[in-house]
Amino acid sequence: MRVNLIAAGFVDTPLSASLLGDRLEDRRAELRATLPIGRVVGPADVTALAVHIMTNTALTGATYDIDGGQQFVW
Questions:
Q1: Cα 63 from Cα 3, distance rounded (Å)
Q2: Model confidence, pTM
Q3: I need a labelling partner for 66 at 20 to 30 A (CA). Which of 23, 35, 43, 59 fits?
């Protein structure tokens, strides 16, 4: 059995939009301006990571942060 964890930061999804409401566009602009990747993390980014973890059977027992570099700038 392999166990890995995906620890996502802000991901631009309909749920994020419903939680932030009127503040959503401000949050997107803030992230685009401050994240090292220069854009907001989307569902496709998380999906690509999940597929990679599932297909590479050498990966196990790890946490994979996917936040566009947010931990480095804050």
A1: 9
A2: 0.90
A3: 23
